[in-house]
Each structure stands twice: as C-alpha cells, then as structure tokens.
Amino acid sequence: MTAHISAQPGDIAETVLMPGDPLRAKWIAETYLTDPVCYSSVRNMYGFTGDYRGHRISVQGSGMGMPSASIYTHELLAEYGVKTVVRVGSAGAITERLALRDVVAGIGAASDSNMNRIRFDGIVDYAPVADFGLLRDAVDVAAEQGVTAHVGQLLSSDVFYTDRPDMYQRLAGYGVLAVEMEAAAMYTLAAKFGARALALVTISDHLVHETHLSSEERQSSFAEMVEIALAAVTR
C-alpha cells in the first residue's frame, strides 16, 4: 500500500481512467464495469477495478489540481505497475471554436505551474504531450461514434478563479483550446515512467460566452466522453 492508495499488489489494472471527482469514479465503475471492486477509499478518493467487455479496467479519482493528480498518478505508475492513464474530466473553453458539450483530446498541455520548472531546474521549458497512439485511437473511436473530438493544446492551470482572463485570450490566439487543471502533470509523469497518457475533457463551461452546463447536462455529456475513453483503451 502507498500513502494515498490502500490497494494491494494486483488490485489495480494496467489501464486506469482518472476523473477528478471521486464520486464520478464511483459512477463510472458502477455504470460501465462488471463486478467492480473498491480497492481504495483513503481520504474518500475512491478507486475501483472491474471488467469492461473482457478487459480489466480501473477507475481512480485524482482530486483537483496538479499537486493532487500528481500524487495519484505517481503512485499508480511507480508502485502499482499501471501502464496507461486517461484523464476524463471537464474543461472551460477559451476559444470560439468550441461549444458546450464538445469533447477535446489534449495533444499537449501548456501550464502556468512551476512544477516542471522546478523539475528541470528552470533550464528547460518541458512540453508535456499525450501518447500519440492513444490519442489517435480516441479520435478514431469518437468518429466511429459520430462525435467530433477536437484535438489541440490544453492549458493546465494552478488557478481556478483567475485574475488574468486576458491571458486566456492570448493563449487562444496561439491555438490553446481549453483550460483544465491536471493534464500537464499527468503527461509529464507518464513520460517519466514510460507509460501512456491522454486527457479527454468535455467542455462544461464556456469562458468566452460565459455559459455553463447544468449538473444534469454535465452527467449526460460526461457519459459520451467516458465511452470514448473506454473504447479507445480496449482497442
């Protein structure tokens, strides 16, 4: 067991879906997995393992923000032999190219965090990117399901309530599609441990139009994204 995950060796599958919300992890497990077993509830950050169409899959909550996501991603990859992590969460659109409910596959993740600057002694601006094969599978699956998956760069921010909304406009001008809070850390750790990572996010808030989905709409939109993720990791 690790400090934050109470699983025993072998309890966790090599492929893990990672929503931020632990209750969302519970919902995914109970909705999509056959015979899901809860392997951890430390700090109420639930983790489950079950079967999805003949494939062993785990779902682990990551919490909000890169510090929390880094803890769970690191322990999964370093201590439990996980080979594939897929973030399934929400994001805020910062460009007119997107609408509410759209699905975005993050090819890379810019960040305002100092985590990688510290990691590389301030010498290198490391560019965290997704696993290309996993990204391609997700986009192909989305097309097969009649869903347009927008592929582009995300912003992984340390700040939810920003004092610099003008920065979003500048980033959008450089092709960044949406802002979220975890992908850059997950991509970096996957690279460190030789694993695959992808962030799939649903647009729940539009920061240009100042609109957002209701809780009911978030639930239905989230399901579409989860189904793409599950199909992609089991191809």
Automatic annotation (TrEMBL):
Signal peptide: none annotated. Its EC number is 2.4.2.3. One of its GO terms (biological process) is purine nucleoside catabolic process. CDD domains: PNP_EcPNPI-like. It catalyses: uridine + phosphate = alpha-D-ribose 1-phosphate + uracil. Belongs to the PNP/UDP phosphorylase family. This is Uridine phosphorylase.
